Amino acid sequence: MNDNKRKIQIFDTTLRDGEQAPGASIDPERKIVIARQIAKLGVDVIEPGFPISSPGEFAAVQQISRELQNVEIAGFARAVKADIDAAVKATQDAARRRLHLFISSSDIHLNYQLKKSRADVIRMAKEMVAYGKQFVDEIEFSAMDSTRSDRSFVIELVEAVIAEGATIINLPDTLGYALPHEIDELFRSVRQSARGGETVRYSAHCHNDLGLAAANSLAAIGAGASQIEVTVNGVGERAGNCSLEELAMIIETRKEALQLATNIQIGEIYETSRVVSRAMHSPIAYNKPIVGRNAFQHESGIHQDGLLKNRNTYEIMDPEAMGIPRSMIVLGRHSGSHAIRHRLSEYGIDVADEHMKEVYDRFKRLADEKKIVTDDELIRIVGETTDTQPDPYVMTDLQVLSGSNRSRVASVTIKESGDGEERSYTAVGAGPIEAVIRCIQQAIPVAAEFEDLELHSLSTGEDAHGEAVVSIIYNDQRYRGTSIHKDIVFAAAQAYVAACNQAVMASSGSAAPKASAENQAG
């Protein structure tokens, strides 16, 4: 790394602002798990919550402060003594900490929310910064809704808190309203015009209501901000905050042009994204930059051909460097025969030229009908064309008996490619999917640790299709299977069998996909 690159501090507020997203509330135990992963990601500051808001929130902030001694902890508080006392007490065991105070600065907030005059706000801010300074050296002050505030008042407010000991000034774009050039002008104006403005550090907290959070954060950096406040997956109020992974990868990918650097360990990006998405029950949009499932996938035959020859033809980042499973080629109606041969070769399947045309013709017909052809469907096409069974295991039948007051009972029939025999297995579970998975675990020797299940609705109405994505761990490697079906229990079972088949093929020494690739079933 070039030592001349300017280091940008990453302030993570996933557990405070991110948790304010509707439905994203996290219990204290999960907060601690997420905080550990965020610290592992390499952020400089964690804001773990709002201590005054509840006893559970206070306890979570307190435990995170005690446990995570290698990251600075920010105690969040309104410009109110009780808030400050709670934040100070909750973070008192942190190795490094700061007090993060905020008060609104826009007239619309003052008149309709706070019902305070500008003079009242300046007095409150001065008193509370001075009060907080008794307990901590580092005080970050946020003038909430700065970008919709009168510039002269923001400067006056900033001057007042700097005089009382504030060390970091945050100028938030609370409603995601500003344009990049307006952010630039705001930061430059405050730095240059406020007395003491050049003696403190500056932070930007940009919301994404107009989709400009990352661009506005970069504009703030250009105007002198040395800290950016972000959330994992961009979660937060309304349209969310500046996305940690987006900002980190903008800086990483364009570091020579920007001459910037961060302490983010990019290899932890994907795992952190998954942890937060699960805990907050917040699905990630397919087209989400960096961590969305389509971010590194390609269906176009032209793109696929280029990628197979040289990844850099259509990718500017390496997904595997971020811990993202490589699954760059999606087989659909726009795919060419070269992509199909490549996918089959990953499974150790070599189709003779005399069969390839029929395989491709069947593939195209299925792609016209279903849009995406999964790996399992492609392998099945090969089997039908060549009268073989390439998959080690095929689920030929599934039945589930469910009731509101009884355990669910499942029966699964599995056909093995080795001897061609079909064998049936039964099991019970608290839910239908659990019962089915237990059946399959009896049938397949490598049906290892069931790590994760994601369910997605792909359409609406009575004939809606559901998608199941199953992850398993075998020999310390992760394998994923995907299936699409109208019956979501059947889809989950197919996805699990697909993941297990991938593990079997990998462990048998065949040229199966790497453990980071996705095996899909349909």
What does this structure look like?
There is one protein chain. The protein is of the alpha/beta class and 522 residues long. The chain folds into three domains: 274 residues, Aldolase class I (TIM Barrel, Alpha-Beta Barrel); 86 residues, Recoverin, domain 1 (Orthogonal Bundle); 128 residues, 2-Layer Sandwich (Double Stranded RNA Binding Domain), CATH 3.30.160. The protein contains 17 helices and 17 strands. The strands form four sheets. The chain has an eight-stranded parallel barrel, surrounded by seven helices. It has a four-stranded mixed sheet with strand order 14-15-16-17. Strand 2, helix 1 and strand 3 form a beta-alpha-beta unit. Helix 1 packs antiparallel against helix 11, helix 2 packs across helix 3 and helix 7 runs parallel beside helix 8. The two termini are 45 Å apart. The C terminus is likely disordered. Pfam families: HCS_D2, HMGL-like, LeuA_dimer. Belongs to the alpha-IPM synthase/homocitrate synthase family. LeuA type 1 subfamily. It comes from Paenibacillus thailandensis.
Keywords summarizing the entry:
LeuA/HCS_post-cat, metal-binding, alpha/beta, 39% helix, 522 residues, Recoverin, domain 1, elongated, Double Stranded RNA Binding Domain, 8-stranded parallel beta barrel, 3 domains, disordered C terminus, 4-stranded mixed sheet, TIM Barrel
